[in-house]
Specification:
The chain has two helices and five strands, in the order E-E-E-H-H-E-E. The protein has 85 residues and is of the alpha+beta class. A five-stranded antiparallel sheet has the order 3-2-1-5-4, covered by helices on one side. The mean pLDDT is 90.
Length: 85
């Protein structure tokens, strides 16, 4: 019997930008440079909808979203999967 297999992405967003993907910084500038400006450094990261569009073009499907409220920040996690061929 054939068993379907999947791979997964977990994107974390702050301020409407995807800041980490599978635990790795997703900004255009290194995290150290981005953070020097203050705040989360999210300004160098892609907007959520742009990131989702790009992932969808590569076969990824958004399957779940969670939001966590922390002091001074709201973290949104985006869970995506795609079937391994």
């Amino acid at each position: 019997m054939f068993s379907r297999r999947f791979e997964y992405l977990c994107g974390q967003s702050q301020e409407g930008k995807v800041t980490f993907v599978n635990g790795k910084w997703a900004g255009k500038d290194p995290v150290e440079v981005a953070m020097k400006a203050g705040g989360s450094g999210a300004g160098t990261c892609e907007n959520i909808w742009e990131w989702l569009q790009a992932q969808g073009q590569q076969g990824w499907e958004l399957v779940s979203v969670t939001t966590e409220t922390l002091p001074g920040a709201n973290l949104t996690r985006l869970y995506l999967k795609r079937e391994l061929l």
